[in-house]
Write a structure and sequence with these properties.
The structure is a homodimer of 192-residue chains. Chain A has 192 residues and is mainly α. Chain A has one domain. Helices cover 71% and strands 6% of the residues of chain A. Chain A has a two-stranded antiparallel sheet with strand order 1-2. The longest helix of chain A has 34 residues. Chains A and B meet through helix 1, helix 4 and helix 5 of A and helix 1, helix 4 and helix 5 of B. Chains A, B: It is found in: Cell membrane. Chains A, B: It comes from Artemisia annua.
Chain lengths: 192, 192
């Protein structure tokens, strides 16, 4: 124990980590989560309200495109709503981390949940992106025609809503990174 | 301060962490990475060799589907190859972690890289999955017909190769989790 104490003190003199050094990290974590809320909420609303009806129609068919014609877009809205709710729910925990730099279990929990949310959000955003790409470019070997010439506004709306979602993905990666740094940083320094 | 010190000793006596307790975690990390190599390699090869030529053809057109007709499938192969190479490259580091439980900087680095690879792999796998879904079901509002009736083998090959990739996603999530646990666990205990 005493040797450990000396070693620890030796470390401390070499690398002076000020007490409460996780505060900055935690504040940045909070800010990033707020950005993530904005991104995912914006993406979900933009995609969820995305609809276009063409100005011409036949007696039988009315040309109309809306997000829930596409399973991937439905998944996109669903996933963005979930991640947005998740961000809102973790705000209190993030505030607790600002005040209590020592918290360890809750940080691990957050890293795990963040990672799962990252996988979830990336899957939704990429599935939607691949459909948007197909709508723009079509595919000749399967004879899927590009539909963005007809549904221009719809395509633009869908493309735009991807931005918020990919922004939130970057936020999640940064938040995991900050969590790992904070975890590695509090080797009983605060207890000295 | 002294109160914190007392708290800490209380914690230590309550939860006895044996020296080198990260060894099991590191071994599991290594095993998971090997599973990840198998999954991503299998997925990349299965998709990369996926091709089907229909037995009928006209004088001008030969009906043929192969993976690189689809941008999402190309991305899928590319991403799986990258993640496979990444897994191979991190094997030595993982072995080092088994021997040196204390390693901290390299663990943080691994968590960050794992997270980026997770986002990359998930995006590739989901983009491919959304195309596979479309090939199976089609989409009526854009008049994209399901092509799996014609290209049955091609569709089956593409669906199958998704499995390896999604397995590797689970592996990455577990590996990040193990990394976070290992990081949080070595509070100078090994110096005793």
């Amino acid at each position: 124990m005493s040797k450990a104490g000396r070693l620890e003190e030796g470390d401390a003199s070499k690398v002076p980590v000020p007490v409460g050094s996780n505060k900055g990290v935690s504040v940045m974590d909070l800010v990033l989560r707020l950005v993530g809320i904005a991104g995912t909420l914006g993406a979900a609303i933009a995609m969820g309200t995305n609809e276009q009806t063409l100005p011409f129609f036949t007696r039988f068919v009315r040309f109309n495109a809306q997000y829930d014609d596409f399973t991937s877009f439905r998944l996109f809205v669903f996933v963005n709503a979930i991640v947005c709710a998740y961000f809102v729910l973790t705000i209190p925990l993030s505030i607790v981390h600002i005040m209590r730099s020592v918290a360890r279990g809750s940080r691990i929990l957050l890293i795990i949940l963040d990672t799962i949310m990252l996988a979830l959000l990336t899957s939704g955003a990429s599935a939607a992106a691949s459909i948007v790409y197909l709508a723009h470019n079509g595919n000749s070997s399967t004879n899927w025609l590009p539909v963005c010439q007809q549904y221009g506004d719809f395509c633009q709306g869908a493309s735009g809503s991807l931005i918020g979602s990919f922004g939130a993905i970057v936020v999640l990666i940064l938040v995991i990174l900050l969590g790992a740094i904070a975890l590695s940083r509090h080797p009983k320094r605060v207890h000295l």
